[in-house]
Every structure is written in structure tokens, then in C-alpha cells.
Predict the 3D structure of the following.
Amino acid sequence: MDRLFYQQLAERSLQGEALEDSLCEVILTSPEITLLRLLDAAFEVRQKFWGKKVMIHIINNAQNGHCPEDCHYCAQAKTSKADIEEYPLKSDAEILEEAKRAYESGAYRYCMVFAGRGPSAKRVEHLSRLIRKIKDTYPIRICLSSGLCGEAGLQKLKDAGLDRLNHNLNTSENFYPSICTTHTYGDRLNTLESARKVGIEICSGMIVGLGEKTSDLISVAKTLRRLESPSIPVNFLVPIEGNLLTKTETLTPQYCLRVLCLFRLLNPKAEIRAAAGREGHLRSLDVLSLYPANSIFLDGYLNTKGANRTKVLRMIQDSGFTIDSEHDLKYLLRQESSEKQEFTVDGSSIFLKNIADLRPTLDTNLKANINIRATSQSPQSSPLTKKTK
């Protein structure tokens, strides 16, 4: 592919054109694609609508486990044998305290997630009170993930001040029966349509690596384009032991980046989030996710940990991005204790090599003898003493 190919990708996206399915397949699978040029094309679109800002999201897993659904990828599903810490609904005080913590950590949005099929009328009233309390106390936007919900309940949540409803499609309509049998793709789509009808912004994305075909992935990206979803989390399957779905052989760092680029090019104005599984699947290419994506999670996900917050904030700063927050990025980094260490390697400030590093082929017993002699001799007579001129 020549440079013109990538320029045209960016131009068509900026002009609001939907890329053909065949072209989407090329982006995802062609060996002729040059990854850095593809990332540059996606970044051109990202920069047009979002500049160099990164939106920080923090999740509150407000109720863990005890879910009657059988989503094969989820550790909270009734079919999962994952060893998670189950607990009922957190108290209002705990949820409010976590909202405070999210705000003080620089979060742009506070995401509350409740396990279960969907909220009862009583739960909707409770959530409405919680939303009002948080909005009255902290200048932070709220996203709620509460399962399937009808128009009447969503209207009450809207009236309480809910900014956004999260309800992921997760995969295509054709592939959905392969990942869940207790509800349908249509059920999820209806919840999203109802949210839009009452004026709540939607947040909906997918999980990559469930065994779907590239055509399924393209279908989801284009459905979200049709829905004009302003927020799209792109998750990569986290292989939690005990879940029905744990295999992710198809996911490589380069493929994950191609996926993020495709979602950006098909949804140019959306907040694209590099979400769960980012650290494990992108590995050393993690920072490159910020070029197509403009949003990221801090403090991990529902039941799995992510990179520590200092590492995430430094990654954003070191790559020349900023955060959309009431708090300055440098200020947030100063609040982290590990920021006191100016230079670290693999989390350690001690980076001098020892004898095993310096002489890796030396017999183990001989290494031990050398270490013993080195510690018993004076600096002047030690054969290991560093010489100076």
C-alpha cells in the first residue's frame, strides 16, 4: 500500500464516508498494511475531533456476581467458575466515597456497573437517588451499566441526571447466540434504542477475541456508526480461568491496533476507548493505542486489574498527550508515591547488574565463590572492584 492509500482512508473518514466491508477486511487482515501508516491515518482523524486529549474513566463494580445471565466471557455469569469476590450491592456511602476518589484521581467519567439482567422498578428509584447525590456533590459525569432496561426506567434515570448508559453489543447479531443464550442481541439493541429515545447518550462497544469472524467485527463497528454512539469501548477478551470463553489465540498486538484503527475510521467523532484486555494483548505496543483511541480506563476493570495508575498516567504524559480533567496531569503524577523515583527499570530503582547478569555462562558454584571472596576482600584487593583512572 502506498502513502496515498492511507491518506485516502483518513480523508474519507473525515468526510463522513463509510468504508466498504471489503476495505475494512483489508485494514484488518492484509499483510500489505503498514501498521505505522495506518496508525497515522487513524490519528489524523482522532486529532481532528479530539486533539491530543485522553478521557480517563474509572469503574466502580458496585455489585459483583450473583448474575442469572450466562454470558460466556463474564466472570460474574451463572455459568462461570471463576474465583471472584462476590458481594451484594455496595452501600450508598461506599459508592459516594468511590465517586469522590474517582474525581480526585482525575476521572472525566465515573462508571457504575451493577451485575444482573436488569434493574427492577425499586432499583431504578435507588439508582436515581444515587445519581442525584453524586451529581450534587462532584463535578463529574456519570455512566451507568445496569443491564436491560425499558424506556420508563431510563426516563427516570435521565431525569435524575444520568449522562450516559453503557450497554455493549459485544458482538454481531449473527454470532451472539454463540456467546449468550439467556438474552438476545435484540434485547441489547432495544435497550440502546430506548436510551437514545429518552435522550441519554449511549456507550456501547464490543469484546474482540470471542471467536468472531472479521465480518462480525465489521458489523458491530458499522452498527455503532448507525446508532451514532458517542462512546465506544473496544475490549479484548481477558482469559479468566473458570469462564466458558478463555481462548484468545487470534489476538496479537498488531491485530488489536488494527481493530482500534478501524473503529476510529468508521466512527470518526466517537470517543474510542482502549478498554479491558488492553495491557495483556497490546503488551509493548500499549502506548500506540492512544493514537486511534482517545479514552482509557484507570484502576483496572470489573474483576481484573489493569496497569497501575502511575504507569498509565506516565504513558499518557510521555507520549505527548493530555487528559480531560479538572486536575492537571503533572499534579496527579505528583500525588503518586512512586513518582519520587526518578529512574526505574521494571519497577526498581536499583539497576546495577550483579555477577549473574555480568557472567551468565559461569558455573553457579563458581559464581557463589566469587561473591563470597568479593565481600570478604577489601575494595583495593577485590578482583571485582571497579577500576578508576
About this structure: The two ends are 55 Å apart (CA to CA). The mean pLDDT is 90. The first strand starts at residue 53 and ends at 63.
